[in-house]
Every structure is written in C-alpha cells, then in structure tokens.
C-alpha cells in the first residue's frame, strides 16, 4: 500500500472516530461551494428576477450560520433541520436568491433526521421538509414549472428514503453482530460444559479400570498369603502379578489426577467394579452396528499387542463415537471402514465413511458444536495421542487417532 493511500485511510479513520470534526469539515466544504456561487452569480435580466436582492453582508451571514448548523446534525438532527428551515424562510422572505449552500444543507438535514432518529421523528422531519418546500416555492418571486416542482418533491422524498434505508441497514448489521456475539458466548459455554461432562465420564471409566486392578491385586495378595508356606513358587508368581498390576494401576491413577470429576452418579455406587469394554470387544460392537443396516469392514495391520487399559478403553470409545456419528449423519447407503495399525510403539485408529455427513458431523445441534467431537479430543489428548477429523477426498468423513501403546 502506497503512503498516499495509507494516509487517506488514516484520515478516514480519524474522521470516523470524530464525527463532530467530520461534520464541521462538511459544513466548511458547503460554504466553499455555495458562497462564491452566491456572491458571483449574475441573475437573468428579467422582470421576475429583478425581485431578488443582491447578496450583501447580512445575506452572507445568514447563509454561513444556517450551513454551519450542520455541525450538530448527528447529535440533534431534528432541531438542526428546523433551524435550517427557519433560516431558508428568512432568506426567502428577505428576498435573497437561493444558494447552493442552503439547498445542500437542507437535503443533508433531511437525510440526517431519517438516518439518525426513529420512525416518529423521521416522519415529523419529512412532513416539515415537505411543508417548507411548498411554502418556500410559493414565496419565491419566480414561477416554478410543474416538472421542476415534481423533481424537487422526488428529490426530497428520495433523500428521506435513503436515510431510512441506511438506518435500517445499520440496525440490521448491529443485530447480526449482537447475535453472533451471543452465539459465540453460548458456543463457548456449551463447549466448556461438554469438556466438563466428558472429563467426568473419563474419570469414572478410569476409576473402574483402576478399581478392577486393585481388586485383582487384593485377590492375588490373599492367595499368595495362603500358599506362601506350602507353595513358594506360586506365591512368587502371584506377587509378580501384583507388582505388574500395581504399576498399571498407578499409571492409570496418574491420569485421574487433573481430570475434574464434577458429578457423582449415585447409581454407580453399587455397581460391580469391572473394566470398561476395550478393543477385544470390537467385534461385538461392529456386529451391533451392522444390525442397524450400516456396512462396516475391519482391517487389522501389524503385530497386535495389548495396549494399556486406559488406551484400550479410549480407542474403543473413539470407534464407538465415530460409528455413531456415521449412523446419524452419513445417510442410509453409506459404508464405513475401521482400521487398526499397530506400529512399534503406537496404535493408529482410523474410521472412515463415504456418506454425506461432512457438515452435519461438525455441528450437531443447530449452531452448537457436537459434544461427541469435544469428547474425542478430550479422550485422545488425555493419553498423549493425536487426533485428526475432517472430510475425506472423494466424499465422506474420516477420523484418525494415534495412541501410544504405553500411555
């Protein structure tokens, strides 16, 4: 951008921030146009134009005062219009010829009332302007043709309509901005609530996993205590199992720290402490999905190894959530694919479909983002993984997550 254009933008921004200064410059501009025309114009040498007085100091002073009143056109548009109407009537009664400054100031005042005030004051201003135009034309010593009168009326009404349209347009955009701000605040609130809800659910699941391991440790410790005298080898094996399970439980306990558990479900208090479903239950999940009519295929690549219990639950829940969204949004003829890649130290999970659910998957409830999507990010991030969600090339939707096998 050139320095000249940059300077013009800066000057425009300065005027927008200072409307009083901008209107003052507008009034000065009208005087620069109107005063020379008023002082230097030569009236036709006809009988009707001989009725006009030659411009003098008083006439110029009235024009200057009337035009400079535009300085307050935004703050007090209706009083400014009434003041300009009174000034023009004074000029007409005194016999001075109309000047460009008076006419332009009158039109700008009409526009200002329509653009900066409500319908009631705008209507009053329009009626005052129409009445003034009729009376002013009547007191002029020159005759006005019907075409000229019609042109003046159309111009006045057009300026008033322009001001009203711009006011309604500004109100419309202001409402849109306010609505967008409200939706953004509501979206942020919903996202925070979804994160809190998902963290609570993850905490409960991790609690079940850890509790299961603690139960195993208790049983193994009791068995080792009973057989340590008669079968030391089996007791040592039980102690090794306790050590291994204990390390796993501690690893899962570390993940519970920092996960906010906001609600306590009393119905879960009496439930049996058992691990959540994992990748070993994937076949049952896919069979259930196929029963709904969705064609699902499963590929497993690499050397399958059991991940940590938390990753096992997270990968299963991710597949479950992605297939649920496919059922809801992909359409009746869609197909889905689930792929598991076992790498050297990580597990990659991919769920893809060829449906139509690209837009609806990203926003489930009107303008609010889907809670399932937030839950996916929370769950994968909890285990130090990576998640990518987006449309597939050629149509459909894809979810790709990478989990470390040892979380």
TrEMBL record:
InterPro entries: DUF7134 (IPR055558), HATPase_C_sf (IPR036890), HATPase_dom (IPR003594), Sensor_HK_TwoCompSys (IPR050482), Sig_transdc_His_kin_sub3_dim/P (IPR011712)
Regions crossing the membrane: 20-37, 57-73, 80-97, 103-120, 127-143
Superkingdom field: Bacteria
Known catalytic reactions: ATP + protein L-histidine = ADP + protein N-phospho-L-histidine
Histidine kinase/HSP90-like ATPase domain segment(s): 310-407
Any one Gene Ontology cellular component term annotated for this protein: membrane
Keywords, ordered alphabetically: ATP-binding, Kinase, Membrane, Nucleotide-binding, Phosphoprotein, Transferase, Transmembrane, Transmembrane helix, Two-component regulatory system
Entry's Gene Ontology molecular function annotations: ATP binding; phosphorelay sensor kinase activity; protein dimerization activity
EC number: 2.7.13.3
Name under which the protein is recorded: histidine kinase
Lineage, uppermost ranks: Bacteria, Bacillati, Actinomycetota, Actinomycetes, Streptosporangiales
């Amino acid at each position: 951008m050139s320095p000249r254009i940059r300077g013009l933008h800066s000057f425009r921004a300065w005027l927008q921030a200072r409307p009083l200064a901008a209107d003052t410059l507008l009034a000065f501009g009208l005087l620069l146009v109107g005063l020379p025309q008023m002082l230097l114009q030569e009236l036709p040498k006809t009988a009707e134009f001989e009725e006009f007085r030659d411009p003098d100091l008083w006439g110029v002073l009235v024009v200057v005062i009337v035009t400079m009143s535009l300085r307050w056109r935004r703050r007090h548009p209706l009083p400014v219009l009434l003041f300009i109407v009174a000034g023009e009537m004074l000029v007409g009664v005194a016999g001075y010829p109309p000047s460009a400054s008076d006419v332009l100031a009158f039109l700008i005042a009409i526009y200002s009332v329509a653009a900066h005030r409500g319908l009631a004051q705008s209507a009053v201003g329009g009626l005052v302007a129409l009445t003034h135009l009729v009376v002013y034309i009547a007191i002029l010593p020159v005759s006005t043709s019907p075409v000229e009168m019609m042109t003046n009326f159309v111009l006045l009404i057009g300026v008033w309509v322009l001001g009203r349209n711009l006011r309604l347009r500004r109100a419309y955009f202001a409402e849109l901005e306010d609505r967008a701000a409200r939706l953004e605040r509501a979206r942020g609130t919903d996202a925070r609530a979804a994160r809190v809800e998902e963290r609570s659910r993850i905490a409960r699941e991790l609690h079940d996993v850890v509790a299961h391991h603690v139960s195993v440790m208790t049983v193994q410790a009791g068995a080792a205590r009973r057989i340590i005298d008669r079968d030391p080898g089996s007791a040592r094996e039980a102690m090794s199992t306790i050590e291994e399970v204990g390390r796993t439980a501690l690893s899962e306990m570390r993940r519970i720290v920092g996960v906010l558990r906001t609600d306590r479900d009393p119905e879960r208090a009496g439930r049996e402490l058992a691990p959540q479903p994992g990748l070993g239950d994937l076949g049952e999940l896919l069979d259930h999905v196929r029963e709904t009519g969705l064609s699902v295929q499963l590929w497993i690549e690499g050397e399958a190894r059991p991940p940590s219990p938390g990753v096992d639950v997270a990968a299963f829940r991710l597949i479950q959530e992605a297939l649920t969204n496919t059922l809801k949004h992909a359409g009746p003829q869609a197909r889905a694919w689930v792929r598991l890649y076992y790498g050297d130290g990580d597990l990659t999970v991919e769920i893809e479909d060829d449906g139509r659910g690209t837009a609806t998957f990203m926003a489930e409830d009107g303008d609010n983002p889907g809670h399932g999507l937030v839950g996916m990010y929370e769950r994968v991030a909890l285990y130090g993984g990576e998640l990518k969600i987006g449309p597939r090339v050629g149509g459909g939707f894809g979810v790709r997550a990478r989990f470390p096998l040892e979380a």
